[in-house]
Amino acid sequence: MVEVKNLTKRYGVNMALNNVSFKVEEGTIVGFLGPNGAGKSTTMNIVTGYLSATSGEVTVSGKNTLDEPNEVKKLIGYLPEQPPLYLDMTVKEYLNFMYELKKVKLPREKHIKEICQLTKIDNVYDRLIGNLSKGYRQRVGIAQALLGNPPVLILDEPTVGLDPKQIIEIRNLITNLGRNHTVILSSHILSEVQAVCERIIVINNGRIVADGATDTLAHDLSKDHRLILRVEAPEREAVHAIRELENVVDVYSMGEKEKGVYELSVESEPNADVRRPLFALLARKGWPMLALKNTDLTLEDLFLQLTSSDTAYSQNEDKEARPKVDIAYEPESAPDGNAADGNAETEKGGEEE
Ligand SMILES: Nc1ncnc2c1ncn2[C@@H]1O[C@H](COP(=O)(O)OP(=O)(O)OP(=O)(O)O)[C@@H](O)[C@H]1O
């Protein structure tokens, strides 16, 4: 659906994107994750045709952004990091204005009404945008992206500055939209991408450093494929028997932890899951398994490793020293302090125009 090939972007001497390539299949929700300054907005602006690349190409449904820019724009609904809202317009005026600007062909009233219901802004339809809470403004921004019913939605940092309740609401909305659209969600917040996306592409310093299914990315990229087993068994006999299992690379004892109970490290081939054969062996031998855990990195560990250590560059030829980056975590409370109140007021209809 969306294919990005060898995208490079230079701002003067600063290389913001360095040979970025990825594909997003139809009907998926993909997270484009990276710390501040990684190159997310630059990529999104190029994909949506708002910025030109220094080299490389982007196709959407087989249409090239350079050859058919207007056709590609019709296929994409874009919520930029700073949504282009006119604060002195009402929601109604703004959506009608954008409808005309985008030259949407669908029946106006019905289409706008459906979008307002989907994004849950029908209750603020006649309000001034400038009087809405940040959460509602963001919904209006998403509504604007949905005009014309584009198959692809690109959302750049859609929950930045929202309070926790608004964040959950917008995430639910995105999950909902993912049922009928291909969604690329650009974010620096790992938990956001993890909550909403089935696949994660990690970008750092203008390069793609990881790409895979959310559920298995950490496991797949963990270099350490080890299980830690606690078993009540004769130590040497257990080590020997487990070593004989298929796909087991190495086993060693980490000592007696309780009387007659040993902790063993069981290392396996990278793509093998030895838990079932291990369980079957211990059951056959009558050795009670008291605990089993894997030593995979968590996604958070992996993100930190990929974006703040040299590991990020070990996948690239270029290993010159680079500054460390800040890893941003999801804020626990609203950054602007009173956003929650603003939202409550809006919902109760207490805002003034
Ligand atoms: N117009 C510009 N002129 C010069 N440098 C720029 C410009 N826009 C972005 N950059 C630089 O390009 C790099 C990538 O920026 P970009 O905004 O794409 O990152 P980002 O991942 O979206 O970060 P953030 O989440 O902070 O917006 C950064 O080093 C940034 O300073």
TrEMBL record:
Q: Which GO terms describe its molecular function?
A: ATP binding
Q: Into which family does the record put it?
A: Belongs to the ABC transporter superfamily.
Pfam families on file: ABC_tran (PF00005)
Which PANTHER family does this UniProt record tie to the protein?
ABC TRANSPORTER, ATP-BINDING PROTEIN (PTHR43335)
The protein's name: ABC transporter ATP-binding protein
Keywords, A to Z, come to: ATP-binding, Nucleotide-binding, Transport
Positions of region (Disordered): 312-353
Q: Which InterPro entries match?
A: AAA+_ATPase, ABC_transporter-like_ATP-bd, P-loop_NTPase
| Parts forming coiled coils | none
In which domain of life is the source organism classified?
Bacteria
State the organism named in the record: Neglectibacter timonensis
Residues annotated as domain ABC transporter: 2-230
